[in-house]
Amino acid sequence: MKMLVAGKWIDRPKKIEVRFPYDGSVVDNVPIAEEEDIETAISNALEGAKIMKKTPAWQRAEILLNTASLILKNKERIAQTLVLEVGKTIREATAEVERTAEIFKLACEEAKRIHGETLPFDSVKGSEKKRGYFVREPVGVVLAIVPFNVPLALCAHKVAPAIAAGNSIIVKPTSQTPLNALILGELLLEAGMPPQAISVLTGPGGSVGMRLVRDERIRLVSFTGSVEVGKQIAQNAGLKKLSLELGSNTPLIVCDGVDIDRAVHATIAGGFSIAGQVCISVQRVFVHKNIYRDFVDRLVERVEKIKVGDPRKEETQMGPVIDEQNAERIVDWFEEARDKGAKVATGGTREYTLVQPTVLLEVPTSTKIMTEELFGPGVAVNSFESLDEAINLANSTRYGLQAGIFTNNIFEAMKAIEELQFGGVIVNDGPRYRADFMPYGGYKESGIGREGVRFAIEEMTEMKTVVIEIRE
Predict the structure, then answer these.
(1) Active site residues
(2) Do 361 and 456 reside in the same domain of the chain?
(3) Are 374 and 283 in contact (CB under 8 A)?
(4) What is the CATH classification number for the domain harbouring 101?
(5) Count of domains in the chain?
(6) Average pLDDT in the 237-246 region?
(7) Measured between alpha carbons, how far is 81 from 151 in angstroms, rounded to an integer?
(8) What is the b/e burial string over 399-429, where b = at least 16 CB atoms within 10 angstroms of the residue's CB?
(9) What phi and psi values does residue 446 have, to the nearest 5 degrees?
């Protein structure tokens, strides 16, 4: 596919191959953007930002709603593309396309609700004759840097709020999964997006991505990805707004007396969907000692029934991880945990990029799976005696995106809500839960800022304060 540069489809001689994670076959290739393309995209985005700022809210909402309709109209094409470049199952891909359309619908609604408020100047002595308010205005040019795991929906979480707020956008998709973003660019143009206001540039993150990050004309960078790359962006961005949704090592606490089957279901749904390649995948599970053995037995029994294989087949429940390098790393982490004393209850092996769903027991806290982000199909399950112990274990990481707790005790729930150091706490469901309207982001090294359509719009706008003297 060609890349989209200010509404025009451009090709270049240097290419990047997009490969099917399941077997390594070439799906397509995309051009590597050159300096000329980057400059064209940015200079046009500046003009596009002026156009978007003058575009009324109803018209921006119309573009967003049109985009949602076009996404659903092209659902099968986009879903098949996601299967081939990401390796997620056809069911997961179809769900992502439908979710993406809903994100654009949400943004359509929020585009009509961007407003400020009046300010009570008579509350300040000497300012009784002043009146004022603040309004929100678009930041200008937004750079959206998108990850490989849920590329279409997470691109939408950046692009749709940017349009709602009246900004222009440059999208930099990951080199592993750029095709869906290019299709989205095509649909945005068809939906009525001004050509100057949308570009999708392909190429390596270290060159194309960082060149965009460093440019002073970019006003906001919205990035989803690893902590390490997030730190590089922060170091290179200069004086601009940043929205960074970074990694996690997500804990789930299961207290005594809860419905064990529900907790097991949440662990499996949260730990193995998209082969565990989600920022808020369940990775560490802390189960009360009284129900630990029962929980483990039910969990292992169900995990061993997960159908792993070709993601193109309807019966497949879990597909491959993104590439063999990551598959090898994931299994190395399992082996490190086993070497340090953990027990492998099931899984722990791979065939090319198909990593078997894995459950590790009694895992030492010094292991990588207990301290870093696995981004693979594995969960570590340990027991605890007191809730204080479980909360301390959950907090013992540099990450803080989301956490979950199953409990029937309101006092336990409130204690966890108050003491867990995470941007989201999910009670009586898995921490993998996310509704696209809610604020989403983390504490500590899990990032800066919040996504969720309304809250992303706040990030992508500036406040302007207006003060009027009414004294005659």
Answers:
(1) 245, 279
(2) no
(3) yes
(4) 3.40.605.10
(5) 2
(6) 98
(7) 11
(8) bbbbbbbbbeeeebbebbeeebbbbbbbeeb
(9) -85, 0
**pTM score, whole prediction:** 0.97
Write out pLDDT tens, residues 339-350. 999 999 999 999
- 430 neighbors 267 (Cβ within 8 angstroms): yes
Same domain flag for 314 and 424: yes
Q: Tell me the C-alpha distance between 273 and 433, whole Å.
A: 12
Lookup: tokens for 71: 């996404």
Please tell me the distance from the alpha carbon of residue 410 to that of residue 232, in angstroms, as a whole number.
42
Length of the chain: 472
Q: How confident is the model at residue 472 (pLDDT cuts 50, 70, 90)?
A: confident
What tokens does 344 get? Answer: 């492998």
CB-based contact 453:161 (threshold 8 Å): yes
Residue-range definition of the domain harbouring residue 102: 3-247+446-466
> Which backbone phi and psi does 165 adopt, to 5 degrees?
-80, -10
Same domain, 37 and 83: yes
CB-based contacts of 244, cutoff 8 Å, min separation 6:
223, 230, 233, 234, 447, 448, 449
84 and 194 co-located in one domain:
yes
How far apart (Å, rounded) are the C-alpha atoms in residues 169 and 380? 40
In a domain, 18, yes or no: yes
Helices (H), 318-367: 324-339
**Alpha carbon distances (Å) from 8 to 31, 163, 199:** 14, 19, 8
Give me the residue label for tokens 């840097």.
145
Chain centre distance of CA 79: 18
Helix axes 90-111, 57-73, angle to 10 degrees: 170
What's the DSSP call for residue 347? -
